[in-house]
Amino acid sequence: MIKPEDFYGEMNKNGLAYFTGVPDSLLKSFCAYVSDFTFAGNHVIAANEGGAIGLAIGYHLATGNTPVVYLQNSGLGNTINPLLSLADQKVYGIPMVLLIGWRGEITRDGQQLKDEPQHKKQGQVTEAMLTAMGISYKIIDADTKDYPAILAEMTVEAKSSSQPVALLVRKGTFAPYHLRMGDTPEQSGLKRLSRERAIALLVDKMPDASFVVSTTGMASRELYELRSQKKQGHEKDFLVVGGMGHASQIACEMSRRSEKQIYCLDGDGAFLMHMGSTALNAAGKFCHIVLNNQVHDSVGGQPTAASGIDIPAIALACGYQAAETVETEADLIHAMDMLADFKKKGSCLLEVKVIPGARKDLGRPGLSSQELKSKNMKYLGSI
Q1: DSSP character at residue 174
Q2: Same domain as 152, residue 202
Q3: What is the mean pLDDT of the chain?
Q4: Environment class of residue 256 by beta-carbon count within 10 Å: exposed (0-12), middle (13-18) or buried (19+)?
């Protein structure tokens, strides 16, 4: 395995000292090291991958230096427009090094590594996407001993060709490194709920004729396990296993066309990723619940920008009928009662501040995405 500190040191030797991106599970050790040892002004955790490309372009224009953008391959879609319409050498020619975690990777013998459903297609087409965009790339893994030479070569290529280049990172490439965490809200004396407990309370307060759209990551896994434990079935939950940041738009349009009461279980990172959707969500009639633990929980615990913004104020400014923040069990239950008539009045938002973390033995959905979709649509009466 490659030690994050060694890889970081080689990047610095090549003049790569600015980092931005969206954390990824395969890169979490490296991202954690960057968070701990990079001057704050030279490390920005972006709201989405396209925004990271924008930040990288701004850095290069202001300094003349070459930035690093890290992301999961599932985020390539968000980068395509700024990469091709701005950074490409046929437009402005912006050098940068993309560090891409390869979920659903294709092994050396041509087989696909087993991964979650949302990574299957993305893993298959990642190399083809980079090739189609004219982005030169190299693959590294735990056995890549000559990574210093590869990194130097790719950095030179980015600068000489005025073009983005990429390093595609296989699973298990980086040795473990754990982020140095400050005090959690619980350690600071605030008695916040766990996300799992909050979801259980929320589900208990939902009427029978309800439907839940749950966001990417731990929240959907916790919801699925909760339903299994209660023997409730899974027809009432659409698990947004990919497409981070789009759960609220799915819920919004469903609420305009279904007689069910629609709830969206969102996360702070997902809310930030496509926050512009908030301006359109007011046209719906759903309850938008943002479970805010202020970190990217499923990919290493790196902080989001959600600790410094007023999410309910944003919702109200965008036209939501009601919005508030809760931190305790009693306040959550009270708020759900107060917001119960959203189907008549219009979209509302409830920010639930929770502590980071999840159970180590948390399971994954046992039904396939196609099976879940079929159950969802039968419950909704659309098939």
Answers
A1: B
A2: no
A3: 94
A4: exposed
Do 138 and 68 have their domain in common? yes
Alpha-carbon distance of 207 to 292, in angstroms, equals 23
Beta strands in 81-214 (DSSP E): 96-101, 136-140, 164-169, 193-194, 210-214
Tell me whether residue 143 is in a domain. yes
User: Tell me: the pLDDT tens digits for 194-232?
Assistant: 999 999 999 999 999 999 999 998 999 999 999 999 999
pLDDT tier at 55, thresholds 50, 70, 90: very high
Question: Rounded to a whole number, what is the distance in angstroms from the first to the last CA of the chain?
Answer: 49
- Residue 279 included in any domain: yes
Residue whose pair of structure tokens reads 């993305």 in the numeric block = 122
Is the domain of 160 the same as that of 247?
no
Give helix 4-13 / helix 28-37 axis angle, nearest 10°.
60
Q: Copy the structure tokens of residue 8.
A: 């970081």
Supply the CATH number for residue 118's domain.
3.40.50.970
**Secondary structure (3-state) at 261:** strand
CA distance 234 to 217: 17
- Among 188, 259, 199, residue whose Cα is nearest residue 229: 199
Q: What is the span of the domain harbouring residue 225?
A: 192-380
- CA–CA gap between residue 74 and residue 272 (Å, rounded): 17
pTM: 0.93
Question: Which one, of 25, 69, 100, lies nearest residue 299 by Cα?
Answer: 25
Biggest alpha carbon–alpha carbon distance for the chain: 63
CA distance 288 to 265: 7
